[in-house]
Amino acid sequence: MANTNINQAIESLAAEIGDNIYIDVAKWHLYLKDAHLHTMIAEQIYPLLTDKNLDADRVTQIMQNISVKLGGGKLELPLVDLVPRQCQLQLMDILEEFQRKM
Fold first, then answer.
1. Mean local confidence (pLDDT), 63-82
2. Helices 85-101 and 38-50 sit at what angle, rounded to 10 degrees?
3. Tens digit of pLDDT for each residue in 11-47?
4. C-beta of residue 12 within 8 angstroms of C-beta of residue 4
5. Which of 8, 34, 73, 94 is the most exposed place for a label (fewest CB within 10 A)?
6. DSSP string, 21-80
7. Over the chain, what is the mean pLDDT?
């Protein structure tokens, strides 16, 4: 039962992230849900929320460790380099709000 609640919470967090946070490529916005990255980032960030260890540096490190393949895999960049600063701030707002509601 507890795993079901955790899975639902992660899915809810992933949906919120996927609908609001995007990668900027040549001024095109590719939302994380469309890039299939929203669940991965939610799964990695969720423990920070439950342990009350949420801070921008930890979130940035998680994003630094997620590689995004470009050009059919010819190039890989960290997610943090593809998400505009404004979206990174918005992500922190989303995470802080989500944590408050937990």
1. 97
2. 50
3. 999 999 999 999 999 999 999 999 999 999 999 999 9
4. no
5. 73
6. -EEEETTEEEETTTTT-HHHHHHHHHHHHHTT---HHHHHHHHHH-EEEETTTTEEEEHH
7. 96
